[in-house]
Amino acid sequence: MSMPGHAPLASAPSSLLEPDLLAAAPAGLTEVGRLVTDLTGEAARALRRRNGPLPPLSPDELARRMDADLPEGPLPETGRGRAAVLALARSYAAGTVDLADPRAAAHLQPPSLSVAAAADVLASVFNASVDTWDSGPSAVELERRVVRALTDLAGYGPGAGGVLTPGGSTSNLQALLIARDAALRARADIRGAGLTGLAVRPVVYCSELAHFSVARACALLGLGEEAVRAVPADAAHRMDPAALDRALAARAADEIPVAVVATAGTTDYGSIDPLPELAAIAHREGIRLHVDAAYGGGALFSDRLRPLLGGLDAADSITIDLHKTAWQPAAASALLVRDARDFAATTGLRVAYLNPDDDGAAGYDGLLGNSLATTRRADALRVAATFLALGRQGIGAMLDACHDLARHAAAAVTAHPDLELTAEPVLTTVVFRYLPARRAEADTVNGALRRRLLRQGTALVGRTDLRDGSVRLKLTLLNPQATKTDVDDLFAAVIAAGRAVETDGEPQ
Ligand SMILES: Cc1ncc(COP(=O)(O)O)c(C=O)c1O
After folding, report:
1. Same domain, yes or no, for 368 and 418?
2. What is the Cα–Cα distance from 314 to 117, expressed in whole angstroms?
3. Parallel, antiparallel, or unpaired: how do β-strands 317-321 and 288-293 relate?
4. CA of 266 to the centre of ligand 1 (A)
5. Which of 206, 239, 263, 321 to mutate to test the pocket of ligand 1 (most atoms within 8 A of CB)?
6. Which member of 98, 99, 250, 466 lies 3.0 to 4.6 Å from 111 by CB, making a disulfide possible if both were Cys?
7. Each residue of 192-251: pLDDT tens digit?
8. Nearest atom of ligand 1 to the alpha carbon of 108
9. Is residue 259 part of a domain?
10. Between the CA of residue 432 and those of 194, 216, 410, 413, 424, what are the distances in Å?
11. Relative to the CA of 263, which ligand 1 atom is closest?
């Protein structure tokens, strides 16, 4: 059998003995360094040929380009070696979103930090897992320390705990699992028979602007999406505590409140529910309070924005997404709990092949019992590398810079006759729309102008719909190196695209 390309990526049986085949071997580490240098070099060259955050391709064109780049598909019968991998890097970079481009401002998806990306390579090299102590001793210890840093930052005491999860949706799911079991344990054998035979209806209270993952979690937990009681928000897009009070008072006799879910940083507006008031209500009613701070949790790093999260430490659990406002590669979410015993009561588990009792008693314990997952990456490595490199203040300064950009953007919208501001920014998002000459066409024009920019690849802005279904555009500003001029340029691009759609319609 021939061996095309470089040995570690070839398919011949003799390559199995190559000293640099395995990443963590001494020769493998050197090879990883070389490959990373080569792959990032290819990516840099491909990006230099671009003129915007997206490739100037329609979805069909991108698919055809990938057919051409991977003529044999991603799984050829025999290995094609190093050259194929370098070509793949070129193709991938040419077609990727470039979040470091200051004109990328659509989603809660920041450009990742170099230090975090590099540390992530090391996590992949050693491939440790945190489920058992012997799957990755330093990974287990590091996650414990990162979690402790986060619970301290959130204002929790020494009994607190936490776990890194694959995203805010999963953190919210696990928080509601804990809440469901706490509320229903006395009424049903939750871990055994599940909800079978339960004669009550569990319900969850959250703002009408809460993230959809709350409803999805209710469905996954067997409560059904109908368990969600959507509490009206006020004009500032914050859950109205009086409305929560009314919803609680109006509950039917067989409805058992499982949790109040407050949002600290709604996806569109960045608005923060009134945490002290909601905590007081939840406390009074004996209901768990979960705070979904997936977006707003990053404010904890910032001296300027931290006061917005006053009352957060009264929550029973908190979701914080470090892959949103701490510039981590996805995914690095954390679920924090005020009382670490919440895990033992729900996901706590002893399994003979992983963490038998006698190993645990001897101190050889991993983090299996904290998590919905079994095998789990050493995600704490990139988080710790970031924290050490930048410090709390460094991360806070990044958020402050984005907050400044959002305030500038809001002022720019207000000053422009063809733009309309929907809400003053709280964190780093700005919701607005382009005003076409024929106002009745505003929704179609705003939807089409965003796609026009996507197709050109020159600007990436977000979109949302208001409660009445009308279309808005959104900037989610998470590039701390973007300038006010970049923001002005984004608006110029939006206006130009809006005018082009008004005159030419949407190109097919
Ligand atoms: C408020 C809020 N909660 C939860 C999530 C879900 O986070 P993830 O995408 O990491 O699952 C998001 C995502 O944007 C969010 O904005």
Report:
1. no
2. 34
3. parallel
4. 9
5. 321
6. 99
7. 778 887 889 999 999 999 999 999 999 999 999 999 999 999 999 999 999 999 999 999
8. 14
9. yes
10. 45, 28, 8, 7, 10
11. 1
